[in-house]
Amino acid sequence: MSLSPPSRYMFVSIGEDGDQIFYQSLDTQQLAEDTGFESQPIEITEPGIFKLELNASQITPQSEFFIFAYILDKDRQAINQIQETFYYYSGTDSDGSWTESRTNTDKIFKLKEPGTYYLQLYKNRESVFSNTLEVKMNQGIILTRYFVLLFILFLIFTIYAFGKSRGGF
Predict the structure, then answer these.
(1) pLDDT (tens digit per residue) in 38-89
(2) How many structural domains does the chain have?
(3) In a designed cystine with 118, which of 28, 62, 72, 86 is the match (CB 3.0 to 4.6 A)?
(4) Distance CA 16, CA 140 (A)
């Protein structure tokens, strides 16, 4: 069985992350709760759909930290935000070894106007451990929900047409 071109495109677009326009790796100790971190200006030349991704690595075992990330406009006013707790816990119990972790999060958002934007990050004060946080921003994201909706409508139409040709509707 082969897939039609629209279905093939739908499956390919599920993993489409667009083009990276910003990347920075930070030691979380740089993210004080009061001053935080502000990126260099990010120039957006075309409006569209963007993805902000935060990936934590080298998380100190048995620890967690909370990150606030804000997307700022040219006037440095917050226009969107992402908040997440990153953690890594492991241990053993009567069932054996276990591990619990959250090391990444992302948010898809739309910018309606080209211009200069910034990213601002803060970390909660309780976290004293040093961890690495990668911050990425991509543009040109393809949302699969439109392809899924189109596929469902096509499926409903096909079932209706098949039922009508058999005299069932």
Answers:
(1) 999 999 999 998 999 999 988 888 888 888 999 999 999 999 999 999 999 9
(2) 2
(3) 72
(4) 9
CATH number of the CATH domain containing 68: 2.60.120.380
Instruction: Give the CA-trace dihedral at 21, 41, 38, 109, to 10 degrees.
Output: -50
Dihedrals φ, ψ of 129, to 5°? -80, 155
Cα–Cα distance measured from residue 11 to residue 60, given in angstroms and rounded to the nearest whole number: 36
Contact criterion met (CB below 8 Å) for 50 and 136: no
Domain ranges, residue 168: 1-16+143-169
Cβ neighbours around 88 below 10 Å, total: 19
Residues 7 and 85 in one domain: no
Mark whether 120 and 51 lie in a shared domain.
yes
